[in-house]
Structure formats: structure tokens, C-alpha cells
Write the C-alpha cells for this entry.
Amino acid sequence: MQMARFTVAYWCVLLAALLPYVCAMLAKSGGFRRPRSQGGYDNNDPRGWLARQTDWHARANGAQANSFEALPLFIGAVIIAHQLGAAQTTLDILAVLFVTLRVIYIAMYVAGLPTVRSAVWGVAFLVNVFILFLGYR
């Protein structure tokens, strides 16, 4: 009986699932150092507080939302590729590429570089589609 193993692609699913939380921490950073009365982080109304943020904090919050949006397709694509018996090395490389592109996407989003950010998003989306159809015969 062959034992299932936790592949690099599965580890990438975990990393991709953690990226929105990294974005949330970025968005909230700085707010923890000030009292709530002076505009510091408000745990009683975290979404309202985040909605009032500006500049890179607001963009980090946008990156958080987009990271959550990108997650279901990536998870599904990796699972489907595994089930269809895709070449493991290729799947692992594409999964690492996807996570790398998502990290670059977040950096471009926070830095306020919308054209580069959108281009990286598009490439990451295409990588996801390649992963989805990797095991197609």
C-alpha cells in the first residue's frame, strides 16, 4: 500500500492560506502602538477601523481581501492536479511559482504600484489555470 505524502504543492497551499493574515498584520501595524482614543487599533470595531485607514495600510487591507479571493482557486487547482495524477515536480514548481508571485503581488499592492501589481496578478492567475489543467489528459 502506498502512503500519501505531504507534497511541496500542499505546503504551498498552507503558505498561500497564511498570506492574507500577513496582509492583515501589515494593515493593522502601527495601530497597535497608539491608544484607541488617538486613532490606534480598535478591536471593538476592527473592520470599521480598517476602513478608515489610508495609504499603504489601506492597500495592505486590500491585498488581504484579494489574497482570500485567490485562495479557493489555488486550493482547488492543487487538489484537482493531485487527483488527476499530474507530474509532481511540475506541480510543485508551479505551486512555488504561484506563492512567489502572490508575495510579489502583495509587495506591489502595498507599495502602490498598480500596473505592476495587475500584471503580476494576471501571471499568477495563469499559473493557477496551468495547475488546474496540469493533470488533464
User: Anything to note?
Assistant: The CA atoms of residues 27 and 60 lie 5 Å apart.
